[in-house]
User: Fold this.
Amino acid sequence: MRIIENADVAAALAYPALMAALRKMFTEGCNQPLRHHHALDPDNSQSGMLLLMPAWQADGYLGLKTLTVMPENSAKGLPSIQSVYLLFDRDSGTPLALMAAEELTSRRTAAASALAATYLARKSAEKMLMVGAGAMAPCLIRAHATGRRLTDIAIWNHNAEKAERLAATLKAEGLPVRAALDIEAAAGEADIISTATLSSAPLIRGDWLKPGAHLDLVGAFTPAMRESDDQAVLRASLFVDTRTGGLNEAGDIIQPLKAGLIDESDIRADLYDLCRGTHPGRTSEDEITLFKSTGAALEDLAAAILAFEANRA
Assistant:
């Protein structure tokens, strides 16, 4: 069994190749049961969570990702999310590789958002707002900048110094990045707004969104968490990575559903529909689009196969 470290995973998962692998997997499909969530202490949401995410092809590969989510880790100087991935041969059940899954998870998540944006953001989109400055933020910025000419990328974070540090790092890579102090002003200017936080209260208001904006919600992965308000959901055409995840895990979708503000039929399409061409995605320049990502085991499997086959030699 091969052990593949984060550096080798990262080297194998360049965004153009990864987006192509995700498009292929969403087009062809695979088996992926609903992920298992286990609160380590059900009475304390800050104590952490264990997630198990299996997926397998009819022929080919089987994979399982195990990850922990520890909200208080940032105060300890540790990542909030840590994970490993185990890849098997589907036919024999033979373990093929054990991978560090931090890079795998962050890159496949960012690639899924960038893939969705190829269908949902305006082709002329140039200005991006990144809400959050954690581990996902640089991945989302780099992924959205793949194949798209972004001329202005603003980063807002509740800790302004963290936003400044990340902006400086990405600017050194040649990206047009700056820190933003006023989230409302930055959101009002943005063509693409990407959020990656652990927020339980809305950060983006629908009244701030300009016509044609694309909202990419990546954080807030439980029904109790939320990054957008009701007005944003009501103004936007709604899309999800998977309907199962969106309807069972995404607070940005579940909360307005329970409040009777939207129906399940208001979800226009998921990434299966977009990649298979059964829904066109954006239909006008002024349409506001909202993509809610909860992550899917299918995405992990596609990324793990790409990483394994690149490192097999």
